[in-house]
Write a structure and sequence with these properties.
single chain, about 550 residues, alpha+beta
């Protein structure tokens, strides 16, 4: 290529086109690679890994056999192994060690153990090893010896496995019944008694003395709730007696026999004896349990449905709040306000608000929404419940409002851009046909600007769904006892605190007492959060595209 052609190639901008294309390609590869890493690390956690029986001997110690899943392998230097008492062959500069998930934390004191590979004598995978998912203390690994009913032997040996599966189904069904009664029926009773207590307190504040007709009606209602509670308490007692009937006897890797009540067992399976098809079915079952279940063991076990529900609910309420505020502000600034220094100053302020750190919004939400606005609402409408706050405490409403304030500049800017792109002759044509300015705005301008509004909403949802810092101050908690939506009037409880996927990632990743067990859940939860954001954005984008098509059709 001659110097002249090279110079013309630079002048026509081709290098910059290729440079931009390369930058976009690299960015896409990095994003896809990051999502792939998160997906592999997170989704592989639910696969039923084979359980190894590893016999090893530390220097100067007897041979020990442990059961567990090989969770990780890493290469370490010869010097590090030498400090651990391992001598490598001459000339070998490094060796490997295994991270074994041994479970049985209530007996061994830890879930994971590093084993230097030179210590390992044998590594086998017995078909009869049983992995147990428990409601407390994490996983348990051992050999099934027998099944008991009320302390009496029912089955042992090979027949014990079939008997265990049958009784485990019954046990889980009883647990579901107990949870349903405690969460819904007894929850309704507690809510009814609390409402009567507040009514009684309000009568006292109004100066109505005890013995009045109102107090007698409250006493009768309380008696009715208490009678209903006694019936449920008797039913719960019978269910707990039935639940604690069965036990399983397990033999650990060190030879000890332990008895585990089936009431503490979620699932039991033999991973080494499962076919690939069986493992695939078990895998999808575990993924569904993770999505639909409640968390356990300081959020390191169980599911994350409350966090999913809280995230989606907060984003939906935020979207309902931010859209009218942002659109009205943009319409006023573009269509009605006299353009001058004040309006320019307001636009500068709106643009600067988009760059304010989110934690500042959290401080504002805590001070203004929670303490000032919520405290005032409690004094005016919930006097009987004081000093216990109703709205004067962090909750779903204040979290949604805080994020609405945080994202409203994005909606304002996007809506203004959409209004600016509408040709002036369309407005003038509508006015010339006799429409008022308000009718022109409502029937012509806003429908044409709707795709731009949806663009602002998409950007707002994408930012709000991943915010954590402000939510830690205005409503999100580690574990919420109840969802914001239930069967008790008014059905949507905006004053309740809630769980959030972003905070769940932070809590599990940095506040967990069991880091190794929590690490895969961090990846799985992060992947789920990304997928929810993608689904919300795709939904908004499809609505925007439909509005855009309708706008083009009306123009034609």
């Amino acid at each position: 290529m001659s110097n002249q052609s090279t110079l013309s190639w630079f002048k026509n901008g081709s290098p910059w086109v290729w440079l931009n294309a390369g930058a976009v390609s690299i960015s896409l590869v990095m994003v896809i690679g990051l999502l792939g890493l998160i997906a592999v690390r997170g989704l592989s956690h639910f696969w039923p890994a084979d359980v190894a029986a590893i016999s090893y001997s530390e220097p100067g110690a007897e041979v020990v056999t442990l059961l567990g899943e090989v969770a990780d392998k890493e290469t370490v230097s010869a010097l590090r192994l030498k400090n651990a008492g391992v001598e490598l062959p001459e000339g070998q500069s490094s060796g490997q060690r295994l991270l074994l998930k041994i479970g049985n934390r209530d007996y061994f004191g830890l879930d994971f153990k590093w084993i230097n590979e030179p210590w390992v004598a044998t590594e086998t995978y017995p078909k009869n090893v049983v992995a147990i998912e428990r409601r407390e203390w994490g996983h348990f690994y051992g050999y099934l010896t027998a099944v008991k009913e009320a302390g009496e032997l029912v089955a042992e040996g090979e027949s014990a496995w079939h008997e265990l599966q049958k009784r485990l189904v019954r046990s889980n069904h009883l647990v579901d019944q107990i949870k349903d009664i405690e969460k819904h029926e007894i929850g309704e009773i507690n809510h009814g008694l609390e409402s009567l207590r507040l009514e009684k307190r309000q009568l006292e504040l109004d100066g109505i003395t005890a013995g009045s007709l109102q107090h007698q009606e409250i006493a009768l209602s309380q008696q009715g709730w208490n009678d209903k509670y006694k019936v449920l308490q008797k039913e719960l007692t019978d269910l707990y007696i039935a639940l604690n009937r069965d036990q399983m006897v397990m033999t650990m890797s060190d030879g000890r026999e332990v008895e585990i009540p089936l009431s503490k067992v979620v699932d039991a399976y033999q991973p080494n004896a499962m076919s690939t098809l069986d493992k695939l079915g078990f895998y999808f079952h575990e993924v569904w349990k993770f999505i639909s279940g409640d968390p356990r063991e300081a959020n390191t076990e169980g599911g994350i449905f409350p966090a999913i529900f809280g995230t989606v609910m907060m984003v939906m309420i935020m979207a309902i709040l931010v859209t009218p505020f942002g659109v009205v502000a943009a319409v006023y600034l573009k269509e009605y306000a006299t353009q001058g220094p004040v309006i320019r100053l307001i636009r500068i302020a709106v643009n600067n608000l988009a760059g304010v750190p989110s934690i500042v919004y959290g401080v504002f939400g805590l001070g203004f929404f929670v303490y000032f606005l919520g405290g005032s609402i409690d004094e005016l409408f919930f006097e009987a419940s004081l000093p216990s706050p109703t709205f004067g405490t962090p909750g779903l409403m204040w979290a949604s409002l805080t994020l609405a304030i945080l994202t409203v500049p994005v909606v304002i800017v996007a809506t203004e851009e959409g209004l600016s792109r509408i040709p002036r002759n369309i407005r003038e044509g509508s006015l010339a046909l006799g429409a008022t300015k308000a009718e022109t705005l409502w029937r012509t301008v806003l429908p044409m600007a709707a795709p731009a509004m949806m663009t602002g909403l998409i950007l707002a949802v994408a930012r709000a769904a991943g915010e954590v810092a402000p939510l830690m101050m205005v409503g999100v908690v580690k574990l919420a006892p109840a969802l914001a939506v239930d069967t008790i009037a008014p059905y949507l409880h905006l004053d309740r605190q809630f769980m959030h996927l972003g905070f769940h990632i932070y809590d599990v990743g940095f506040q967990s007492p069991n880091v190794e067990a929590a690490r895969p859940l961090v990846y799985a939860t992060a992947l789920l959060l990304v997928m929810i954001i993608i689904v919300l954005n795709i939904t908004a984008i499809s609505i925007r595209n439909r509005l855009r098509e309708n706008s083009k059709a009306s123009e034609n």
